[in-house]
Amino acid sequence: MRQWSGWAAASAMAQSMRAAAPPVTVKEGGAEIAVSFESAHFDLPQTTLIAWVTRAARAVSKYYGQFPVPRARVRIFAGGGQGVSHGVSYGEDGAWTRITVGEHATADDLDDDWMMTHEMVHYAFPSVPRRHHWIEEGTATYVEPIARFQIGNLTAARVWGDMLRDMHQGLPEEGDRGLDNTPTWGRTYWGGALFCLLADIGIRKNTKNAKGLEDAFRAINRAGGTIETDWPLERALEVGDKATHGKTLMDLYQKMGAQPMMVDLPDLWKQLGVAREDRRVVFDDRAPLAGVREAIMRGVGGSR
Question: pTM higher than 0.85 for the full model?
Answer without folding.
Answer: yes
